Amino acid sequence: MAERGSSTNAYLLVPIILIAALLGTAVIRGPNLVSESGIGSAIIVAAPLILATYALMVLAVTGRSTVDLAVGPLLAFINVVIVKLSTAGYLTSPIATFIVALGLGMLYQLLFALIVIWVRVQPIIVALSGFLALTGINLVIMPRPGGVAPAFMSDWGLGTSIFSPVLLILALATAGWYLFTATTFYSNLKMMGYDERAAWTSGVKTSTVRIGAHLIAGIYVGLGAICYTALISSGDPTQGQNMTLTAVTALVLGGVALSGGRGGAIGALMGAVSLWLIGYVLATFNFGAIQAFMTQMVYGVILVLSLLLTLLVPLISRYVSFISPWSAFLVLALVVIGIMLQVTTYGAFETLEPVVASATLADRYFLLPPARVAADGLAFSPIQGFALLAGLAAIAFVFTARLVNAEAGARTMGLFLYLFVAVLLTALFVAILLQPESLLFGAAP
């Protein structure tokens, strides 16, 4: 079970590395992202895509290559219905709006599940039929974008603050998934995704499990439609097709297996955020009249590359098994935070000329020796040097420990080699610390 969990987590390395690279680039290209309004706007814009990816993730885990291509048109269908009812004066309260949105999503997904179970049609056929039918129905209900969203949503899509009802919906949706994973129903769902025949033989009611998974997906689509309505404050029947392509790409990029049995909210969230960051980074470049086509082309290329990387991850993970995805996330997060701090504080301080503090003034006015600004060497004070060496020693120790753990089961001299390297590194740091007047601290040779 532990090996299966570690191999599953290996698929998160790709979205983690991609998010770090894209977020660093986005912060450099658009520094306004690192602000309260920038983060708030990002949450509101990305929320519909994240929730649509959650819906696809739930269905993909069930197996049978269940990818609901109609997730985008279904989201747009709920959007135009809410706006139509609101414009007519039938929807005025939040409770009624949520009931309509979640109810429509669950009804469609229930119909989807019943057709797959009882009519025994392949899910991809049902999904494609739903995509075409809902695309036409949306245009019949609302031929062109327009209408007005419910009045209580007027402040939801402003994006002026980080904490908003949209963020609350995202948090509750993610927390709800992880509460769901603690149930026996989720275990049966994953078992069915790995092997439906074996699950049925083991006594799992596969039809009930499949219907439950579709109902959960309908809830996520309904929540996504509410966030999308709050974002645009109107109805738009034409955005469903783009949403489907983007959500499927985010699903694959997040390491969710389309064959079933593997997937989670973290991977889907990372995939959706990566896709949003790609659009944000591309928007900082000026491609002229082909801006929209360039974005769609990049989405398509990333979808193909993600499928290829999914095939290569089991092979690559054999050689980098000592690298934990969460360790990589921690290290890359520190790097990205450093880039954010540099970008946000750049130009906030005036440049001063180097000042040399004499020994008398240093002894009189400083409790600790100051950094030797004009001295030779790297201009580190003893405390700064000690902090630097302590950090390097910690990194070396963690890296060596991971290597030792990876080689512990091998009948080779690898374990002795890494222990020998660790002893040499420790001796090096001890030797430097015992010589505080070395060139590292700016002393004369």
UniProtKB/TrEMBL annotation:
Transmembrane segments: 12-30, 42-62, 69-89, 95-117, 124-142, 162-186, 207-231, 243-261, 268-290, 296-316, 328-349, 383-404, 416-435
Compartments, record wording: Cell membrane
CDD domains: TM_PBP1_transp_AraH_like
Protein name listed in UniProt: ABC transporter permease
Keyword Membrane: yes
InterPro entries (alphabetical): ABC_transp_permease (IPR001851)
Keywords: Cell membrane, Membrane, Transmembrane, Transmembrane helix
Protein's UniProt keywords contain Cell membrane: yes
Main location as per UniProt: membrane
PANTHER family per UniProt: ABC TRANSPORTER PERMEASE PROTEIN YPHD-RELATED-RELATED
Highest taxon, organism lineage: Bacteria
Membrane topology field: Multi-pass membrane protein
